[in-house]
Design a protein that fits this description.
This protein has eight helices and two strands. Among the domains are: about 90 residues, no CATH class; about 55 residues, no CATH class. By secondary structure, the chain is an all-alpha fold. Strands 1-2 form a two-stranded antiparallel sheet.
Length: about 210
């Protein structure tokens, strides 16, 4: 039989054991959480290092193209098997020439390629980055989203004129949709019976209408 004193001692021991167990669990959780945060931070840092490496390489390659002769530059690419691959990095160097690699380190690599390879489309986004104190993936994504906001289309005056490759122009009548297809049927019959082109018949019809109005 347990005496009151023994019961008090046992309760204190059990209480201390539980408290110690909770403390150990808390300490273990904090250590695990801290380790997890460090791993995540390290992973994002490695991604930032990749972005910086891309920018460093792009700027270096652009500098080599500027300093080397065309022959030596091609030889450089040949040695590393980079013929054709260098173009995207030259685009990156041109698009981000006003930035340092550290400035855009927080932008993930795929977005860097996206902005550079579509620099005309995203030129406004790239320019706006210059005004930001902190450049990161969120800020870039926000600017790209605004860039994609559809603009209200203005009503354009209908035009039948089209341009040719040599700078000339020609008129093109839009498709004529009619429930009974009367215009098309009549035009086709005239072409078959008279041996004339559709253009010739339409030109005559317009001239006749103009003469009638006058």
């Amino acid at each position: 039989m347990m005496t009151p004193l023994q019961g008090i001692v046992a309760t204190q021991v059990n209480s201390q054991t539980i408290t110690q167990s909770k403390f150990e669990q808390s300490t273990e959780y904090k250590a695990h959480h801290s380790k997890s945060v460090n791993v995540e931070s390290s992973a994002f840092q490695r991604l930032a290092d990749v972005t910086k490496a891309i920018l460093h390489h792009a700027f270096w390659l652009a500098e080599q193209k500027k300093q080397l002769s065309l022959r030596d530059y091609k030889q450089l690419l040949l040695e590393y098997g980079w013929q054709g691959e260098e173009k995207r990095y030259l685009k990156i160097a041109a698009a981000f020439e006003k930035f340092s690699p550290q400035d855009v380190a927080q932008i993930e690599p795929r977005t860097i390629y996206q902005l550079a390879e579509n620099s005309k489309k995203y030129q406004q986004v790239i320019n706006q980055l210059l005004d930001l104190s902190i450049i990161n993936q969120e800020s870039v994504r926000s600017l790209i989203k605004k860039q994609r906001t559809p603009k209200i289309a203005r009503d354009k005056k209908p035009s039948i004129w089209r341009r040719t490759k040599n700078g000339g122009r020609y008129c093109q009548i839009p498709p004529i949709h009619e429930p009974l297809e009367q215009t098309g049927i009549t035009l086709q019959r005239m072409m078959d019976e008279e041996g004339l082109s559709a253009q010739h018949i339409v030109a005559e019809a317009i001239a006749l209408r103009q003469a009638y109005k006058q």
